[in-house]
Amino acid sequence: MAGGEDAAGLVDKHDTSIDLATWHLGIKTRPARVVIPKDLSEVIAAVRDEETYPSPLIAVGAMHSVTRCVEANQGTVLYMTGFNRIIGLAGAFDSDVQVVRAEAGVTMAALHAWLLARQRELSFSPEIGDATVGGLVTTMCKDSSVNGPGHLCALVEALTYVDHEGNVVRLSREKDEDALEHYMCSYSTQGITLDATLRCRPAALIRTRFHSLMVGNSRKLAERMLKLRAACDNVWAVITLDGCYLEQRWAAPGRTLHRTSPRLFLAIMRRIRYELILVAAVPKMVLWGTWGWLPDLYHHRSLLVNTYPAVTAQQARLDFSYYEYSDISRFAEVVEGALRFARDFKRDTGFAPSGFGCYFVKREGARAKLLAGAYSGSEGWSFVMDPLCPDPIDPRWLAYCRAFTPWAIARGARTSLTQTKELLPGQYALDSRYVRPRFLTPYYAQFVTEVKPGAEAAIRSPDRICYTAAAQ
């Protein structure tokens, strides 16, 4: 973003004709201001100066969201790309639990690489490695993790943000657990995230085995998937109307540390998986069962995660819609019903999603006890089944999402404001206690519920403010 500097010293562009687009070019917005803050003082200045930097003011990172959550028309967009430092590790090196502090603009791929170089890792490693720390700690995320929670929020020990008045607020799980959990359910409508402190652990290998399954009877396919899951630590799969690609994952014992698979082979497999997710059409070799010749891979989880370079409108562009089911006993019912729904939709319209991304997610941590966010309810296991499409602006795909969402909700699905396509008011509730008008876009506003009396005082407790802008 080229541009001059205003009196506050912010690098910005004031151009009402500029269009910003998400990674896959599916969602566009036309803000009045696009700002790339260089440091904390510039974030604070932008938040406090509503005349120069009009509302709604939102922060963005890699812009991998798939909904209209990035729209800030005639408002202000803060690109947090400059906040890309990994501040460091804390805790004893020989401990099973350490923490790493990273700024909001750090991608998960970069954080995992940095940790792996120090023989550390996060238990959570999403399939989209370009996702940023700041984006994931205040929204829904999922991973078929091994020996750890399948959402990043359970790993957050502390975070720092700028509130609507320009105060810098530091929340920790030790002192402010409720406020921290509610902030992470706010979709960044409560503040601009600066950094997060995450639990990490010694790096460990996992073993991955590849399978191809024919769909045939949908319920039998689901039952077969559950049997494969019971025989390992976790699975991840892509299901289409014709076949299923599935990965079994085990925690590898310590004695296998010298048996890591060659990085070249991992790169090849990562590319195959990239095409499988991106295009999401099961190749013929999957249907023919040729995955069977592949040896088990021994690798660090993050080394088999995709990153997504810039694309053009002529390319296949990954799009998906998020549905998380907290009752894992309904897995076979949902798989069977979702495939039937897709077949019926294709019969009526000629369109069906190219596949479904399937995750098994361990709910863990205090967030699991909240009634806000997708990971509410008791601790346990959820499954996520995301329909996929290689064209985010195909009107038939958008129509499919509008039709499928009520079907999924009726079967217990929870949705996401940043990852569930074509959501309507009433299909998600964003608690007004945890939003601020400064950061509230028209898209988010339609989901806000009524304010509960007395809630504001609990959130704005002075002991949660580190320092104010005036104190700098």
Automatic annotation (TrEMBL):
Protein name, UniProt field: FAD-binding PCMH-type domain-containing protein
Domain spans labelled FAD-binding PCMH-type: 27-203
Necessary cofactors: FAD
PROSITE patterns: FAD_PCMH
InterPro entries reported for this sequence: FAD-bd_PCMH, FAD-bd_PCMH-like_sf, FAD-bd_PCMH_sub1, FAD-bd_PCMH_sub2, FAD_lactone_oxidase-like, Oxid_FAD_bind_N
One example GO MF annotation: FAD binding
